[in-house]
Amino acid sequence: MRSVSRTTNVVLRFSEPVTGVSGRTIRLRDTVTGHYVTAVVTYNATLRRATLNPSVTLAAHRRYRVVVSTGITDRAGNPLRATSWYFTTGAWGSGGRTESKMRSPSLACPRLIRSKTSLRRRPPSGLRV
User: Fold this and answer.
1) What CATH number is attached to the domain comprising 35?
2) Is residue 126 part of a domain?
3) Burial level of 67, CB count in 10 A (0-12/13-18/19+)?
4) Using one digit for the tens of pLDDT, what is the confidence trace for 46-99?
5) Which of 76, 87, 106, 116 is placed for a possible disulfide with 11 were both Cys, Cβ 3.0 to 4.6 Å?
6) pTM for this entry
């Protein structure tokens, strides 16, 4: 995804209840520096939704990698298959939403079925950059 908001949260929705969601199992990596972005990760069990909220505004026009590890499991102990994907930030801080679907090939494992990041919006008319 391109032109994602620099103040985005990464939101992941799972196909079933899971455990093990934390800042160690869902991470955001800056592909330029190679460092992980400091973030708070929360999980809403009712909605089966994890949110990664970066503690800083992301750099403009930068590629980031969302990394989800196998430490997330369903109630039966089946691990989520490790996965990752990329997005690139735009110039602006806030924006609308977009969704991308992620599916695990194994039905025995919990599936990551949707992730969200925010697209940038153009600055209000009359605003110069």
Assistant:
1) 2.60.40.1220
2) no
3) middle
4) 999 999 999 999 999 999 999 999 899 988 898 888 899 998 998 865 554 333
5) 116
6) 0.75
